[in-house]
Structures are given as structure tokens and as C-alpha cells.
Amino acid sequence: MEYFLNYYPIAMIALIFISFFGIKISSRFKKMLIIICLITNGVYIIWRFGFTLPTASPADVTMGIILVVTELLGFLQLLVFYTLIWKERKRTPVLLGEKDHWPSVDIFIATYNEDRNVLKKSVAGCLKLDYPKELVNVYLCDDGKRKDIKKLAEKFGVHYLTRKTNEHAKAGNLNHAMSCTTGELIVTLDADMVPLPSFLKKTVGYFKEEKVAFVQTPQAFYNEDPYQYNLFSGTNIPNEQDFFMRRLQAGKDRFNAVMYVGSNTVFRRTALDEIGGFATGVITEDMATGMLLQTKYEAAFVGEVLAVGLAPETWTDLLKQRDRWCRGNIQCGKKWNPLLLKGLTPMQRILYFDGILFWFFGVFKMVYILAPLLFLLFGIHSLKTNVLEITMFWLPAFLSSYLSFKSVSDKQRSMSWSHIYDTSMAPHLAMSALSEFIFKKRFDFKVTPKGVHTDRRKFRYTTAYPCAILFALTIAALGKTLYDYLVLGTFDINITSYNLFWVLYNAIGLLLAMLVAFDRPRFRSSERFMMNKPAVFSTSQTDQEHQCELEDLSDTGARVRLPYTAEAADYYQVDNLIIDQVGKLPVQVIWTTKDGDHIEIGLRFKELDSELYVNLIGYMFTEKNAKKADREKRADTFSTVMRFLMKTEKNPEAFKRKYIREAFEGKGTLSIPGEDSLSEIAIKDISPSGCQIETNVPLEIDGNIWIAFDDQNLGQRLALVCWTKRKRKRYTAGLKFLDEQPNEQPA
Fold first, then answer.
1. Among 250, 331, 357, 697, who pairs with 88 as Cys (CB 3.0-4.6 Å)?
2. First and final CA of the chain: distance in angstroms?
3. pLDDT for position 604
4. What percent of the chain has pLDDT over 90?
5. Any catalytic annotation for residue 286?
6. Do 227 and 284 meet the contact criterion of CB atoms below 8 Å apart?
7. For the whole model, what pTM was predicted?
């Protein structure tokens, strides 16, 4: 044993580094590194079971068994993970030719209470698909029975379906739609998903093979999820779901175990009919439906992003979504146990069981968080070892895991961010998994809100307090350890040191978990795409057209930029924006601002007819514009925390300036409605829509005040306080005028 301890870690660490750096020479070293990773982790598990189980007390024995079983399950999941990563199935694209049969397609957009503007984009995207129009029928399947959604369907010329009851939620909605339609293929889209023009063109061809029951494409998102947005890391980390939706699904495709994820999927109607339609009786019908189809047919995965939608926009909504997925997958496993389900291959059974086991990650993570805390605070041992032995066995296993994951993930995901994701959701998902698995509590299906916009930063304390409590316990554990070392002299480096390291590692995840619970304001009701393309606008004052650069664009407005000239005064009357491939869009100016030698203009679209709107969505939602950051870049914990601290504002600016503000040296007075006192102010700049003032009176944001200017031509104005800053004993405030012109203050 002593000989093994002396040479095993040195030899393994040497092989690990040789393999890792050898990847630059040959990709074969990547598989060598994976094999070493599995060997070192296997040796670690054997050591844990054979030599480290504590026996001093019942609490020690219990905690020791819980921890080692958790690690064993983690090792089994590691085996499955590298089986999927070992080799991806890269399918050759299959397209329909002129002589092929082009099947008819029914597109089901299932909706319950989603915002009309969210649905409108999805409908418009379906009408812009590159597929024979006479073969495509779009159905708005509305379980909300809303008149405005029916009018939306009529406006765009698509079908509207509803039913008397909402039995079986989304699955029942889709089954009802099947009973009302006859298309050979069925596409399911979530209400917020917008298909790109090539969606059908790049998926329907696979159905030339009679054994293919469904084709799944990745779920991708054109907005930032709460991790990206709340931590100011949208350009530094990919969406949290990307790694599964693209890499792991591609691995599952090798074993005909691609998961149906509820949207962006094309089905063969006859295959669905054979299993009785979409699975019911669980809150996640997608996983069950795909698994049941794969007992009889095959599935295909197309790794290209062909539809994009909205990720949950608040931290609370993300947790609600994952709670639903967690409970739904466990329900599926209890109703259709993949280990016993007839028709599945052994590998399909393993992969589907692993997919269900994954949703216990919250329980596993809580074990890893609590184990060192219980030792440092209460002396409960979870393993019996010393710092030398655990270093000998754990270090090669950890190092090989870290570097092999780094090599196979291609910067799409790191172990550090996996740790942050798991830690932040662990307390909530642990309760979800245990309550569903043990107590069999049934929960109604709840739609994840989409299209959220707010003007306030909110700390989601109800979701953050479990992590806050764990972080406080971490501080208490560190304090107790310091007290034991300095005062009692009972610090045992052989045991305490690795528990300290463990606690500090967990603290990083807990800190980021609390930061992500600070939801940033989302002022825009619709996400914008960066464009940087030429455009033209015209004004109501002249017939002249002005060349400009279209900087960004949404379905509600745009931002344009052009050189500042003497004609800039006319730009306040812009009434049309002309974009190639879209047409002439009626607009109104919301704000303008001068940027050096250029002027930027914020435009809002007036009511667009259906043809213009469909063209606009087709112009925005292209494969190029839909791409988001797909690699980690400057995503370490320190840089993430610094971005959060440097970019967070207590009072973010909620309003854009409508007109260019000119420097203005003037005086005046302010008064607060309902109060008699007047206070002197200095006016720093002014425009027709607002001004900036200095005063010695503290002002409340979102409060209304009256401004009286000494210049009689300016009169008195009612204004809204948008932001304030304090410097020494003086306050600077940004005001937005609420009236259209100077008037008299009411008595």
C-alpha cells in the first residue's frame, strides 16, 4: 500500500498532463485523457468504499454512507457522460429533392396565457418558412380561450383551435389539435419559439426513412438567461442549457435516445397515432412521448439551431421552470420506468434512467455542501482519512476530471460554471425531487412567463435565502475553525485542512448563487438584434430621404445612426424607416442623442400590417442574427463578481432622452406637489423632453415635481424624477417633462 501511495499519484498526474498537452498534437490524446479520468475516479471510489468509511458514531456512519453513495452515483453518471461524449453522431444533412414527395405539415403552437406580442412573433416566423405555402397549416392551439388571440389568428390568416376543457394541459391541447387536423407531419412549437426560414427545409428530409418518428432540433434562445443577464455575462458565458441541447443530445443520437424537449420538433403523425398521441398523466409530456416512440421507431437529431425563443427572464421564473422539469421527469420515471419499459435497448434504458437520475442533482449537491459544514461545526465525520491520503487519491481524480471536461467541452461549459449552476439551484431542486419521489405530491402544470419587462432591480430573497443561510453557516464554520486554532488549540491539520478547502470551494458557488438572485431591470418589452446594416428614413417636413445605419432592431422599434448636420432639427419628425427586404415602416421618434459627430435616433414602430410584420420578423430571425455567445470567455469567478460590482447601479436610468440636450446655464425653483416650500435650482442642460438640475434638496425617484424657470419663455413644467446622484451636499437629478408645453402651476 505504501509503495502504491508513493508512485500512483505521481504517475497518474504525469500521464494526465502528457495527455492534456498532447491533444494539441493529436486528438487521440483526448480519448486517452478520458480513459485516465475514468481510471482515477474508479480507483478513488474503490478507496472510498474500502478504507474511508467512518465508524465512530451513528451520525458518522450515516453521513459516511450518504456521502459515499452520492459519490458512487456521481461516478456512474461520469461513465454515462463520457460514453455520450466519446463520439458524436454527425448526421449528413438530408434534403428533399424535386422528385421527392413533399409531405404536408401542421404546425401546432400550444399556448395558454402567453403574451400576445410573444405569440405574434412565433406566428410570423411560421409564415416565413421556406416550404411550399400550400403544404403548411399553422394552428394557434389556445387553452386560454382568449378573444384577442383569436383575432391575432384571423389577422395573420392562421387557424385558431380551442377546446371546452383543459384536461391534461399541454399534452391534451396537442392531442386535441391532432384530432382536428390531417397533416402528414406535425411540428410542435412553444409559444415563444420563432422558427428560422430553413426549419422545415432542414428537417423534413429525414422522414424519407420510414423508421424515423421524430426529428429534434436544439432549443436555443435569443435573449439572455438570468445567469448571463443578472451577472452582466451575456458575452462571457453561453446559455445554461446550450451544452445539453447541443453536445449531449448529439451523443444520445448515437443510441437512438434523443430526448424530445417539447418544442422545435417534427413528428410523423402515424407514429404518434400508434402510441396514442402525446403522453398524458405527467407534467412533462415531452420526455415520455419521445421515450415511448423510441420503443418502436427511431429519432434523429439535427444539431443546427433552427428555431429560437425566450429563456426565463427572472431568477424566480427559471427556478419554477426547473421545478416543473424536475417533478415531471420523476413522474415519467415512476409511470414508465425506462429500466422495465418493453421495446427499449439496454443503452436506451441506461440513458433514460440517467436522465431521470440527473434531476436529483440538487440532493447530491446538498450532500456535498453539508458534509464539510457538519464536520467543522459539529464534528460529524463523513469520511475517515488524513490530508496525505485524500490528496493521493482525490487529486488525480479531480485533476483528470477537470482537464478532461475542459478538453471535451470546447469552452461551451466548464466545471466551475457547472458548480455554480448546481449550487444555485440545489436547495430548491432538492426539495422538488424529494417531495415528488417520496411524497408523490401532484402539482398543476404552470407556464413559464415570457416577455417580462420591469424597471426595477429586485432581490429575490425568497429564492436566495437558502443559499444565504448556507453561506452564513460557511462563515460560522470558518469562524469556529479559527477559534479552535487560536484559542483552543484543537486544530487538526490532517482532517480540518481538506474540509476547509471543501467549504471554501462551496462558498464560491453560494456567493454567485446570491448574486444571480439580483434581477436586473428589463426595460425593453422586446429583445433587440444588433444589425449594423444600411437603411433609409424620411421625415414629414420634407420629401428628402436620409441614408442611415440601422444599429439595432426589434419588432417594436429600431435605433439608427447618421452624421450630425444642420438638418438634424428635421430628424425629430421622422415618420418612415425603409429597410430592404422589409418595406416602408411607419415610425415615431422616441429619443435622439448626439454622439460626437453623429446623431442617434430611437424609433418606435406604429401599427404594422400583417405583411410588413411578417417581413420584419423574417428579416430579424435569420441564422446569423440568432447566434449568441457559445463559448466561455473571461468567465472565471473573480471577473464575474467584478462585472457585477462595477456595472450594477442602484438607480438605473429608466428613460432615454427624446431630444438632444443642449448645455444651459440658468436658474429656477422647484416645488413638490402638496408642499408650499420653494427651493432654488441650477439648470445644467435642457431639451424639449427633459432637463438636468442641481439642488440641495434630496428628491425621490419616480416622484413628480414642478420646475419654474427664471427665463420667462420657459414657464413652469411638471416633471418626473428619473435618477439622482449625490455629491457632497448637492444633488444632481435627471427630469422627464410630463406635460407637452410650459403651463401654469395649479393653485
1. 250
2. 94
3. 87
4. 64
5. yes
6. no
7. 0.84
Round to whole Å and give the CA distance between 78 and 634.
Answer: 26
pLDDT category of residue 654 using cuts at 50, 70 and 90: very low
CA distance 292 to 414: 33
Q: Is-contact 260 287, C-beta < 8 A?
A: yes
Helix, strand, coil in percent for the chain, rounding step 5: 45, 20, 35
Provide DSSP, 506-559.
HHHHHHHHHHHTEEPPB--SS--EEEEEEEEEEESS-S-EEEEEEEEE-SSEEE
Do β-strands 220-221 and 307-309 pair in parallel, antiparallel, or remain unpaired?
A: parallel
Angle at 304 between CA 29 and CA 266, to 5 degrees: 130
Under a CB-based contact definition with an 8 Å cutoff, are residues 47 and 393 in contact?
yes
Average pLDDT, the chain: 89
- E runs forming strands in 416-495: 458-459
Q: Indicate the length of the chain as a whole number.
A: 747
CB atoms within 10 A of CB 225: 22
List phi, psi (to 5°) of 271: -70, -45
Residue 398 corresponds to which cell in the numbers above?
A: 479531480
Largest CA distance in the chain: 95
- The rounded distance, in Å, linking the Cα atoms of 131 and 106 is 12
> What is the distance of C-alpha 278 from the center of its chain?
26
Q: Determine phi and psi for 297, rounding to 5 degrees.
A: -130, -175
Amino acid residing at 155: K
- Spatial separation of the C-alpha atoms in residues 322 and 315, rounded to whole Å: 11
Residue tagged active-site, from 60, 106, 190, 286: 286
Please write down the long-range contacts of 669-675, taking CB distance under 8 Å and 24 or more positions apart.
669/707, 669/708, 670/695, 670/697, 670/705, 670/706, 670/707, 670/708, 671/705, 671/706, 671/708, 671/745, 672/703, 672/704, 672/705, 672/706, 673/704, 673/705, 673/706
Q: Rounded CA gap, 550 and 605, in Å?
A: 14
Residue (of 742, 655, 731, 675) closest to 707 by Cα position: 742
Domain range summary for the chain, segments of one domain joined by + = 529-620, 662-737
Give the homologous superfamily in CATH for domain 529-620: predicted glycosyltransferase like domains (2.40.10.220)
Decide which of 3.40.50.300, 2.40.10.220, 3.40.390.30, 2.60.40.10 is the CATH code for 662-737: 2.40.10.220
Query: Which one of the listed residues 143, 225, 253, 422 is annotated catalytic?
Result: 143
What is the DSSP track for 209-265? Answer: STTEEEEE---EESS--HHHHHTT-TTTS--TTHIIIIIIHHHHGGGT-PPP-SSSE
Examine the residue annotation and report whether 710 is marked as an active-site residue of this protein: no
